[in-house]
Recover the amino acids of this structure.
């Protein structure tokens, strides 16, 4: 069958839909769904890395928007942090996407890998971290730190992408001091903004495969809705466990890429 000008078998389409659903669920709970969705898109013959990145953003924004809305209704995330952070992340993601075709991934992988290992060790060593919100700062300092984190992680998402949701949760829990569930809810709002910022730039470049992206995105929406409801029902303890699993997978993947 022909999808977005690509000759794909029915099996390939079904696997892409399954990857979209799984990515939506993981992204909604703790982030990191790009580890599933982006590699699946990169395996399609004839698809360039930039096309895969752009199509991943199209599908991703569909799922993150649904999970953000679900979390908003049920968890009531702190928009005083999520709003400004999302705006900074949107701008950062646009800048990262503009550089996506010119900077090598090898520049970032070692730094990201070291950061992930450190975060995983910290989370395991401090089992109480993220159980309850205990903000490190208040007022202007809190806002400035949130803006800086949003811009930096947004730039990474536009440039590379996989693990962005997990990095947002790491930042909101480990740096700002939110509980895991509240951090996950805010991360979805910010992640939707990073996807939008990158997608705008990729669209100008003509990179997204629209029909394929919408197809995978529909599956992503279903997974995101289920994942958000699961996270809200199970609470911060469940989110922490899934977070550690996703970080471990990120470490293995980035480590193997670097090796």
């Amino acid at each position: 069958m022909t999808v977005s000008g690509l000759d794909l078998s029915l099996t390939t389409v079904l696997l892409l839909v399954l990857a979209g659903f799984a990515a939506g669920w993981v992204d909604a709970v703790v982030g990191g769904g790009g580890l599933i969705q982006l590699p699946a898109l990169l395996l399609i013959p004839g698809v360039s890395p930039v096309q895969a990145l752009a199509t991943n953003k199209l599908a991703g924004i569909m799922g993150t928007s649904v999970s953000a809305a679900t979390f908003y209704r049920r968890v009531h995330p702190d928009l005083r942090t999520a709003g400004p952070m999302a705006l900074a992340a949107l701008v950062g993601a646009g800048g990262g996407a503009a550089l996506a075709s010119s900077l090598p991934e090898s520049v970032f992988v070692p730094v990201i890998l070291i950061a992930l290992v450190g975060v995983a060790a910290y989370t395991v060593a401090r089992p109480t971290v993220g159980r309850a919100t205990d903000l490190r700062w208040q007022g202007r300092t809190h806002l400035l730190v949130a803006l800086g984190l949003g811009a930096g992680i947004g730039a990474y998402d536009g440039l590379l992408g996989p693990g962005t949701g997990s990095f947002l949760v790491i930042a909101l829990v480990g740096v700002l001091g939110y509980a895991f569930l509240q951090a996950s809810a805010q991360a979805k709002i910010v992640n939707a903004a990073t996807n939008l910022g990158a997608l705008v730039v990729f669209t100008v470049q003509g990179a997204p495969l629209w029909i394929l992206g919408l197809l995978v995105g529909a599956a992503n929406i279903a997974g995101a809705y289920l994942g958000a409801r699961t996270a809200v029902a199970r609470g911060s303890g469940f989110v922490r466990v899934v977070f550690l699993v996703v970080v471990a997978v990120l470490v293995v993947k980035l480590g193997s890429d670097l090796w």
